[in-house]
Design goal:
Shape: globular
CATH topology of the domain at 3-139: Rossmann fold
Strand order of the largest sheet: 3-2-1-4-5-6-9
Distance between the termini: 39 Å
Radius of gyration: 19 Å
CATH class of the domain at 3-139: Alpha Beta
Number of helices: 12
Structural class: alpha/beta
Length: 284
């Protein structure tokens, strides 16, 4: 049984490799695909098969997928290019006759206003049309998304946001990685769509308080308008397009788009998800 992990050199990919190994999967049955295989030398030394895999190079995708029984398709990071990139993996999986394709999607991808969702929705539709046996993991927010905010809070004692009363049920990236490993190594998941989120949905007052606890200094929450937030982000070096994207995401949070959790992630893990404070402490 060979399991391919795509984008294995990324933050989530490495954690999935770690989780598979911790669950007792034989290293030589794990295939790690990466644009730069040398970046995974430490895993190769442990016996993991490291192969070239570049979403923009269909030949490398085909070669990496060939002979795999299960494929974890970790969504790409190049917004605007992900649909054809993902489709290349899906099509290769169909051609190779894989037993299970697992895809890391976005929360409520097919029915949400989340600005990140359209490419995930299109990918899910391509997977469904392909007929490949599949499991969809709709990952909510990683607590690590607030690492930069934590560093700003450390330096300036302030958390700036335009999220209003919005709430986020985040979990540690390692929790989502472990869930992927569970789905890849246990039965009964083909055909399932899992909405994965942390056990607790928190607001940004809670986030500021958690940062205060972790940093040992008071962190003031500063709520600003979307316009002021966009201007502030550009002042610290973001281009207008990226600043607009961030404010759009914060608008989604403000509108409650992410605020849903039903305990599925914890049930897959067989334990509670990592608390907000614990994740922030690890980042700090």
């Amino acid at each position: 049984m060979t399991t391919l992990v795509t984008a294995a050199s990324g933050h989530l990919g490495r954690l999935v490799l770690d989780s598979l190994l911790e669950r007792g999967v034989a290293p030589d049955s794990i295939r790690a695909g990466a644009r730069t295989p040398a970046s995974l030398a430490a895993y190769a030394e442990r016996g993991v098969s490291v192969v070239p895999l570049d979403y923009n190079d269909p030949a490398s995708v085909t070669a990496a997928v060939d002979g795999a029984d299960k494929v974890l398709l970790i969504s790409g990071s190049e917004v605007g290019q992900r649909v054809p990139q993902h489709a290349a993996v899906v099509d290769a999986a169909v051609a190779a006759g894989v037993e299970q394709l697992v895809y890391t999607s976005a929360p409520r991808a097919t029915d949400t206003e989340l600005v990140l969702a359209p490419e995930h929705k299109a990918t899910e539709e391509h997977i469904a049309a392909s007929g490949v046996p599949a499991t969809i993991l709709r990952n909510n927010w990683y607590t690590e998304n607030y690492e930069q905010d934590l560093q700003v809070a450390r330096e300036h004692g302030v958390l700036v946001t335009s999220t209003g009363d919005g709430r986020v049920p985040s979990a540690a990236r390692a929790d989502f990685a472990e869930a992927a490993a569970v789905v890849l190594t246990t039965d009964g998941h083909v055909g399932q769509v899992y909405e994965l989120a942390g056990d607790t949905s928190w607001d940004f007052t809670t986030l500021a308080s958690a940062m205060s606890e972790v940093l040992g200094r008071e962190v003031q929450l500063q709520q600003v308008s979307p316009e002021d937030r966009g201007a502030q982000l550009q002042q610290v070096g973001l281009d207008a397009g990226t600043a607009g994207f961030v404010t759009a995401l914060e608008g989604n949070i403000r509108d409650g788009v992410l605020d849903h959790t039903d305990g599925t992630l914890g049930r897959l893990l067989g334990r509670p998800t990592t608390p907000l404070v614990d994740s922030l402490r690890a980042l700090a």
